[in-house]
Amino acid sequence: MAYLLVMGGLALSVCFTLGWGLVRATRWLAGRLPGAGRTPSRRPPRRAPSRTKAPGRPKAAPRTRARKAAPAKVPPTPWRLTRWLARRRSPLPLGLLVLLLYAGSRLAEYGMTFRPLAAPGEFHGLVTTLGWAAAALLTLAGMNLLALWRCHRSGGDDRP
């Protein structure tokens, strides 16, 4: 049972990695095709409504106590590290994959405790390493989502 879980997790990770690489390569090639970057807009451009002056009473004199408009507050541009992290898309799927591998190997480790033979020490080390790797990748994925939010909120040109 443990062999099937571990080898199934390994096969799943290899298939996921190859599939992810294939999808990214396909998207890259599709973006390089002529005409792929140009998408027609769905809406026609709007025209400003024309206003005609109604003949009526004359305009009032402008107020002298008018409050000056405050300049719009522009948020500062994000740091270079934040922009770099926002462009990366892989930490979340990779973190979820490692989390699934960790859960499967923990289940196999739990099942091995009821066997008469003890599990090898390297297996326990592998499970611990997978747990720490999952925690690190999911933390990095959370930072990636925060960086995406920060770059989107600032409205800079470096949005992904």
UniProtKB/TrEMBL annotation:
The keyword Membrane applies. Residues 33-75 are annotated as: Disordered. The chain crosses the membrane at residues 6-23, 90-108, 128-149. Keywords: Membrane, Transmembrane, Transmembrane helix. Residues 40-70 have a biased composition (Basic residues). It comes from the Bacteria. This is Uncharacterized protein.
